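Tutorial sheet, problem 5. The two components below are modelled jointly, 594 residues in total.
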Amino acid sequence: MLVNEIKEAISRAFKSLFDHAITVEDISLQPTRKEFVGTYTFVTFPYLKVTKSNPEESGKLVGSWLNENTDFISNYNVVKGFLNLEISDLKWAKILNDIDEDERFGKVDSNGKKVMVEFSSPNTNKPLHLGHLRNNFLGDATSRILDANGYEVMKVNLVNDRGIHICKSMLAYQKFGNGETPVQAGLKGDHLVGKYYVKFDQEYKREMQELIQSGTNPKVAEKEAPSILEAQEMLKKWEEGDPETVGLWEKLNGWVYEGFDQTYAAMGIQFDKMYQESQTYLLGKDLVDEGLEKEVFFKKEDGSVWVDLTEEGMDEKLVLRGDGTAVYMTQDMGTCEMKHDDFPFEKSVYVVGNEQDYHFKVLFSIMKKLGRAYSDGLYHLSYGMVDLPSGKMKSREGTVVDADDLLQEMVGTAKKHTVELGKIEGMDESESKELYKMLGHGALKYFLLKVDPKKRMLFNPQESIEFQGHTGPFIQYTHARISAIVRRAKTLEVATSFDSSKVGQLTQREIDLIYRLTNYIDTLRESANDYSPAIMAQYVYDLAKDYNGFYQEVPIFNENNKDALSFRLALSRSTAKTLKMGMGLLGINVPERM
RNA sequence: GGCCCCGUAGUUCAAUGGAUAGAAUAGAAGUUUCCUAAACUUUAGAUGCAGGUUCGAUUCCUGCCGGGGCUACCA
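Model answer (structure tokens):
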């Protein structure tokens, strides 16, 4: 790793010049800004006490030492306290050759650690919407990034398949469904069930209106409308195991799962393990007992059990109701323990919206207080809501963007643009269909992933998603174009690797590109540490942009110098390889032609 | 009220405490007999307000203003 080589050398320089030891970890190098000459910049301000001279002089001392005592620092300059280092062309060429020839480039060796990533977590009463897409794409991309970093990754989906909201759609179906099946209704299973969820809400609202008009207090009406009482009754029956209720539940859930499977398949997302809340909602009571024993929890007079987190800056929090039944926290404690029993992880990532920030803070604190060694590895990958121009999405008010519809629309838009641009000449139908999907889904995934997860983001469905500029298709296009160059090169007789000692003077564009390529592994690590695919998204975009600039400026084939030609081809191949890997980590495929 | 997150060009997004705050898009002006114009050049445009910490603050701290979330014996 070039950065480490330089840091190592700076450390030696300090030892030799000032008889002072600084560790490689303490040294910070930053990329040199475009306005200055150089590739890496070392800031001398923090070391003035050691060098016992002014910033400018300190920089010169270190710079000239590096220039004389290493074979890869070819030049240096000092501006104020900033020491800018230039890397020799030969070194750059060697680095490129290594990347181009390394079959394993981009894959980090296994680190023997296990990580579990939980994401998606749909409710089985309605189809997936735009918010779920952000969740799914984040979870999927994070899993891929962790995998590339050498972790053994277990992707799990904890389906929320029980509770009052599930009973709502069941009830409406029972009343108004006339036993219709998804096939009869011409709907995907999840959409059919979602239809009855909406139906329930309409009925419920109507009943509330009636009650309010006849003089009932709105808050009372909310709790006493016949529909909601029936739903509660149904939940009770379900918990008691009433065969008819359970049968209905199984039938509707089965349809929903079929629908979800189609959506997941379309998105290219798989899970290693599915958990159902109907299987886990009673867990956690033994942990409550354990906590009482260890005096982590305490019991109030009414028998309810609490944890006091005021020392951690939080409140007291209920972990078991007075009647001995579980709450959300109880269940999540139990599920956490069960997940660790199933797959003894070092890290466990929960991809869940930021409205649950507090819940997870509490959960993780509790697990720590219970003495679980793995609690330090628990991480809530919190993400912000996706807003529409009209404001917040509300499923009950029909202002949601449906996931299936949106995916379909994206493919349609991709098709329209592609055909208009005349890109499909010479493609058969299956190839072009595959391309539309790749581009449509790629645009959507890239759009949702490029933003810092924790921030709210805006999605404008009217404008659809752009295919130009900072987008997935821009990167896919760059890959397709490089692929065309590589194809053409194969018909010529050009060496597949080059002799780095014969490469002439490199242009700034070329150096910029190789520099960018060398940062791939760093970016990969960083993305995993911050659990943010956005970092990788930015990287691939910058790389594609750099390549386009280079491509515009340098004729690749118009050249008699075979060494230069094979160098540029290697540069192109390495770029394509890296783009493909980086996009792959986001769950986005890249085409060979488009 | 308490706690948490966010405020950056018209708009959508960037910026490990570093140099003159980057892109994209919309606007203006250009580039296709030449490896794919979903591209490339040029141009104009921004850190909510007030303090503090220091060689240096979009970044860290305090207060204020604005937006959102959590604050259930719901999940």
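Marking note: Chain A has 22 helices and 14 strands. Full credit if you identified this.
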